[in-house]
# Entry
Amino acid sequence: MKILVVCGGDSSEKEVSLKTGEAISNALRANFDSVECFVCNDKRHCVRSIIEKKPDKVFIALHGSWGENGELQAALDMLGIPYTGSNFEASALAMNKFATKSIIKNLGIPSAKGVLIKNIEDVEKLNYYPICLKPNKEGSSVGVEFADNKKQAKEKAEYLLERFSELIAEEKLIGKEMTATVMGNEVFPIIEIRPKKGFYDYKNKYTKGSTEYIVPAPLDERVEDLCRAVVKKTYDAVGCSGCARVDFILKNNVPYVLEVNTMPGMTQTSLVPKSAKAAGINFEELVKRMVEFDDRL
Ligand SMILES: Nc1ncnc2c1ncn2[C@@H]1O[C@H](COP(=O)(O)OP(=O)(O)OP(=O)(O)O)[C@@H](O)[C@H]1O
Ligand SMILES: [Mg+2]
# Structure
């Protein structure tokens, strides 16, 4: 079987993707004979090269933009080339935090109160504080800001709207930050994330030693069961396949879902490998399972 690991791309998360791609390729070589790590630049170059290389399976190791938002997934579907992870519909939905929130809330899954912000007038209408302002379609905590009042919110939204076309203004959740990995019917042990300083921003995500990870998260059995059920229900509601990560904040023992990541970070120190390890699955085994996972038959 010829596996093509596609990484790089042109989103703000390119550097993370390059690390992810390299780690995955090295680990796959333990179990598969033909593994190529392909660094692509833009979407047309990517699709053209995939057609030329004729892989049996594409391992998508891209983060953000067209590698994560369903565009590449749709192109591969049309070409009849199998790939890892979620299909284009689930990918597109998960990329849109506000759309995901609307769907899961409708199913009774807890998620913070939030509205879509497209211009400064939308901020005027807000009547709850403190809030978290974040781009609707980004990752790695890029552009995440907090505001305690309307004045701050307007200043921050003005600056963010220059860089991002849509924001979400979400009620700020004060609780324990958690994440859980789902793979098909399996929910791996939940991780509690404790940044040593501040919130789980870009720096705390990618600087070694700046955040403490507790896995399995210390939770009462009843709360843990609730978290697992909410996480699995969210994965199913979005229509995910393969490996996906659901981020949530536990407040008063209720897990409020923040978002779903269909292309979670996969370096040796990322969250998904940490939770897999706690389930007794090492990195090589994890990437092998991701290649072999198939629920679309
Ligand atoms: N409503 C909120 N209340 C408090 N903190 C929040 C809220 N929303 C987001 N955050 C903080 O910002 C971080 C990033 O938010 P979120 O997970 O929604 O976006 P992301 O940038 O797409 O993350 P990822 O890197 O997981 O793709 C969270 O991990 C959390 O620390
Ligand atoms: Mg997140």
About this structure: Residues 94 and 100 are 6 Å apart (CA to CA).
